[in-house]
Write a structure and sequence with these properties.
The protein is of the alpha+beta class. The chain is 38% helix and 19% strand. The structure holds phenylalanine (PHE).
Length: 351
């Protein structure tokens, strides 16, 4: 076939080529480009023939060759634009493939537990209050009736941020060692009746082990009104224990000491693992210690401007890590903070 008819045949072929006919579009566009414009492609091959032509034919064939080249280039451009603009039409996508699996995040077991505790108290009218993690000595110790030489203020327990050596001042700045300081902040800004739950993170300078951590969480409770008595404290906490650990749960209160409550008690629940018979979790006693509580000391009420002759109240504070340990039988505190997905995913289905 002579070169002129070859060229016009190729031009017809290029015009007739439609991208819709391509199966694997991006790959076939590239194959098309290489076929016409590649180093060993149609254009170069025809150009070799063109060089052999006698001089009088070169002009017309040259024009035709240029038309062919432009047609091929334009077509390649058109195809590329199509592939870029409509990648979803590119058949390399298998539309029958199952959709990507999206993993949903889930709440941390400590958040779940804190929410559950707050929920249980919300049902009997407690609202949620918040306070700062970076606190001053006044709110964490002084206003809570801690003597100025109380060992809890010691460097060994408390992370201080700003402190003069050898003296304790209400203005010292520290990381709160318990959420009880929020009680003071609430009493400063609210008049009784007060019925609040205060969840939050606390800090103590302790070596990290399976049973202790320097960061942990507490939920504090405070109830102040006229004629609040120890009976109210006991019934409230019994209600909580049954809601949290099941209707058969029993409680017992043991005398204890906190500077800010009088009388003070520690509360145990019947062991929910052995049902009170004695096991290694309750160390054979049948009881598990879960919180500290007591009647708010009149000194604490007065320090925050509440008349202790008119009002009385109770307070309690519990460790969230310990609650979750008992409820979900977690053996090592460090698991909470290691972000090991094998641990975290076990709690995906509890809300
Ligand atoms: N703040 C105490 C603690 O951290 C717990 C507590 C709170 C005790 C309220 C009595 C009343 O151990």
């Amino acid at each position: 076939m002579d070169i002129n008819s070859l060229i016009s045949q190729y031009i017809e072929e290029i015009k007739a080529t439609q991208i819709e006919a391509f199966q694997d579009k991006a790959a076939e566009v590239e194959r098309f480009r290489v076929r016409f414009l590649g180093r060993k492609g149609v254009m170069n091959e025809l150009f070799e023939q063109f060089k052999q032509l006698p001089g009088d034919q070169k002009k017309n064939v040259g024009i035709a060759l240029n038309q062919l080249k432009t047609a091929a280039q334009d077509k390649v451009e058109e195809f590329k634009r199509f592939v870029e603009q409509a990648p979803e039409l590119n058949d390399t996508h298998d539309l029958s493939m199952p959709a990507d699996f999206l993993t949903a995040g889930s709440r941390h077991v400590l958040s779940v537990t804190m929410n559950e505790i707050a929920e249980i108290f919300a049902r009997i009218g407690f609202t949620i209050e918040d306070g700062p993690e970076i606190e001053d000595d006044y709110h964490v110790f002084t206003a809570l009736n801690f003597a100025s030489d109380h060992p809890a203020r010691d460097m060994q327990d408390t992370f201080f941020i700003e402190k003069e050596p050898n003296v304790n001042k209400p203005t010292d700045v520290l990381l709160r060692t318990h959420t009880s300081g929020v009680q003071v902040r609430v009493m400063e800004r609210q008049k009784p009746p007060i019925r609040v739950i205060m969840p939050g993170r606390v800090f103590r300078n302790e070596a990290i082990s399976a049973r202790a951590h320097c960061i942990f969480h507490q939920v504090e409770g405070l109830y102040i009104d006229k004629k609040v008595s120890f009976v109210d404290l006991k019934q409230t906490l019994l209600y909580f224990a049954k809601e949290m650990f099941g209707p058969d749960t029993q409680i017992r209160l043991r005398p204890s000491y906190f500077p800010f409550t009088e009388p003070s008690a520690e509360m145990d629940i019947s062991c929910n693992i052995c049902g009170g018979k004695g096991c290694n979790i309750c160390k054979g006693t049948g009881w598990l210690e879960i919180l500290g509580c007591g009647m708010v000391d009149p000194n604490v009420l007065e320090a925050s401007g509440i008349d202790s002759k008119e009002y009385s109240g109770f307070a309690f504070g519990m460790g969230v890590e310990r609650m979750a340990m008992l409820k979900y039988q977690i053996r090592d505190l460090r698991l909470y903070f290691e972000n090991d997905l094998r641990f975290l995913h076990q709690f995906d289905n509890i809300v």
